[in-house]
Amino acid sequence: MKPHKLTFQVCLCLFLFLSSAEMFLAKGPTGGSLAIVVDERLAALRQTPELTGQLVRRLSRGRLVAIRGSKTTTDGVVFFLVNVTSRTHGWIQREAVASPTRPADDRRLLDLINASHGFDRLARARIFLDHFQRSPLRPHVLLLLSTTAEEQAARLSRDAARRLNVTTTNAPDFTYFLNYTGLDRYNRQRVKFVFDQAGKRFHYDGAACRELVRRYPKTPEAATARSHLEQLNAISQ
User: Is 6 contained in some domain?
Assistant: First the structure.
């Protein structure tokens, strides 16, 4: 076999392997209905369906699991038997997860979002928007994400001004703000900010508002979103 043909076949196999791995990670574990960890405070994976059961591991918020079954304890706590990977499974408390296939889980997740604050509210709103694609509650969650992000922008502005203490260098001052490490975890949630140089403060970039106006233009939330976008446009001019 010629060397260039061998190289091509090796590259093709590597591409197919990586593509399959990405598809598996995107789909999550198999063996049951898909669910997402939404409350990491309760996300203890246990060997048995009881609060005193042996801990297998702690699951992080946003982790995908596959629900295989359920069991209710004598004190009324419901546990789900879930697959985490092809080799890892266990029991997890029902309130720790939400599933797009289970009736009313979108409402339950919205209640958790409303009870959350700051970054936690944004992270849970992102889970909702990523996984509950057909929920009629999406316009409300989009607006919640937007308003919460703008509230966080004010706090980030104060923190950045206090911590950076910008001195004269070869780099423009605003680049220090847009490279502020406090933005990193928001960026990982696809929540991004613009910087008003005159006022030296961050503002949410309005992505959720634009999606809201584009996809749900006749909802009451869209009217509020348009007002937010007008304010953002006025700042950027």
Answer: no
* Total of domains in the chain: 2
pLDDT in tens, the chain (237 residues): 555 555 545 444 444 433 433 333 347 899 999 999 999 999 999 999 999 999 999 999 999 999 999 999 999 999 999 999 999 999 999 999 999 999 999 999 999 999 999 999 999 999 999 999 999 999 999 999 999 999 999 999 999 999 887 565 778 888 999 999 999 999 999 999 999 998 999 999 999 999 999 999 999 999 999 999 999 998 876
Q: What is the pTM of this model?
A: 0.84
62: containing domain: 27-98
Length of the chain: 237
Are residues 86 and 31 part of one domain?
A: yes
